[in-house]
Design brief:
By secondary structure, the protein is an all-alpha fold. Helix content is about 60%, strand content about 0%. It contains 16 helices and 2 strands. Helix 11 packs across helix 12. The protein starts with 11 loop residues before the first helix and ends in an 18-residue tail after the last helix. About 30% of the residues are buried.
């Protein structure tokens, strides 16, 4: 926790404002003098990177909305007009399109970091849950935005995904018709998707505010997973972490700019440059790359309803992760068995993305001789995905013997994460 405020107004105006609306005090205590663990590494810079990505998406999205026409007869042409006739329209649209992919790249790094270092463990359960809510809202905004260009993949992607809701018992048909605004994907659907796509980023911004609030109550986790014990364990956020985060953001933006200026369409699909035609079905209908793992999980089940349930369960299981991990040690830095299983989990997620991008009956390179196609490949990885959360993490807490941990954050910095006493029994320490 940050403790008592250290802000002192220096001028008459700031004293007057502070007594009525202490917004400067809030900023000072939250982003300047906020005590932060002194051992945070560059994996912890993705929170700042994600904030920048959200700002970029909101600003470019507002500009694009000024020129976009949400009508099935004009939507595709309006996107082409933005590229060709609007001043710097090609740049703004490229930034927005690439920004979606970079946003998800950063959020996946952020999630994996949180899982590795145990940032979901008590007392940060609400912080983690709010993060998963942000992730869900991002997925919704991404899907809705993918429909707006009204190309072939936009139209048929909307058709496939909205039809999935029809598999739900009782509520499936009403929900599908509400999404469509009628009895098929059409103009009403596009209008609804445009309205929701414009709204959701502001909802994300609101939940991000709650996320930051929830972060500042217990304070940051850190690579050792050890709670702050003394002032020597911390550093003020500014200038130490503003400089560190700033450097990481600049590096990230250089990579971002590389895609925008040299390969703006490499992460998209060529069929989306063909105007939507309800009479011509693309050879393969796939979502954007960041949704492919869930698409592979959906295809892994032959039953439509079962696939939909499993796909939503793949996200829902993240909400209960804090209670599935039974280990009393937060960081996997001191959990040798957990590190191996987590590594396999990351590989499984990447493999699911690969499986989702390929035709189900295509043989997996290197495994074709064994008769393994991408459908079977995806099913095996799906089993491991759920086993990791529901079986492996709960059991590891009982069978794994953690490595010795340092006594404090300060000691971990000075002694290179070595424990104070050789042979200490960290497993007996309470969860921090």
């Amino acid at each position: 926790m940050s403790g008592p405020s250290t802000y002192e107004p220096k001028t008459g105006f700031t004293r007057w404002l502070d007594s009525r609306l202490p917004i400067v005090r809030l900023g000072w205590d939250s982003f300047v003098d906020y005590p932060t663990p002194r051992n945070l590494n560059y994996w912890y810079t993705f929170g700042g990177i994600l904030t920048v990505c959200l700002m970029i998406q909101i600003i470019t999205g507002i500009v694009l909305a000024m020129h976009y026409v949400p009508h099935i007869d004009y939507a595709f042409a309006s996107v082409q007009r933005i590229d060709r006739d609007v001043n710097f329209g090609w740049l703004i649209r490229s930034i927005h399109a690439v920004g979606a992919s970079m946003f998800f790249l950063a959020v996946y790094m952020h999630i994996f970091r949180g899982m590795y270092y145990g940032s979901y463990k008590a007392p940060r359960e609400i912080l983690w849950i709010l993060g998963v809510v942000i992730y869900l809202l991002m997925m919704a905004a991404a899907f809705l935005g993918y429909v707006l260009p009204w190309g072939q993949m936009s139209f048929w992607g909307a058709m496939v995904i909205t039809n999935l809701f029809g598999a739900l018992p009782l509520i499936g048909e009403p929900v599908t018709q509400w999404l469509w605004g009628g009895f098929s994907v059409g103009n009403e659907t596009l209008n609804r998707f445009f309205s929701l796509h414009y709204l959701i980023p502001f909802l994300i911004a609101g939940v991000v505010g709650l996320h930051i609030w929830a972060l500042h109550v217990p304070g940051n986790n850190n690579p050792t997973g050890i709670s702050v014990k003394t002032k020597a364990d911390t550093l003020p956020f500014h200038p130490y972490y503003t400089v560190k985060d700033g450097f990481a953001i600049v590096v990230f933006l250089i990579i971002f700019a590389g895609f925008v200026f040299y390969a703006p369409e490499v992460l998209g699909h060529a069929d989306n440059y063909i105007e939507a035609d309800p009479l011509v079905t693309p050879a393969m209908i796939v979502p954007e790359w960041y949704l492919l793992p869930f698409y592979a999980i959906l295809r892994a089940v032959p039953d439509k309803l079962g696939g939909v349930i499993l796909m939503f369960a793949a996200i829902g299981v993240l909400f209960i992760l804090p209670w599935l991990d039974t280990s009393k040690v937060r960081s996997m830095r001191y959990r040798p068995m957990a590190r191996w299983f987590f590594g396999f989990f990351v590989v499984a997620c990447l493999g699911l993305g690969w499986a989702g991008a390929e035709l189900p009956d295509t043989m997996v390179p290197g495994l074709g001789a064994l008769g393994v196609d991408f459908l079977l490949f995806g099913r095996v990885l799906t089993v491991y995905y759920f086993a990791y959360f529901l079986v492996i993490l709960p059991l590891l807490g009982f069978v794994e013997k953690p490595s010795p941990r340092p006594a404090s954050i300060e000691e971990s910095v000075l002694n290179g994460d070595k424990p104070a006493k050789a042979g200490a029994a960290p497993a007996a320490q309470p969860a921090e």
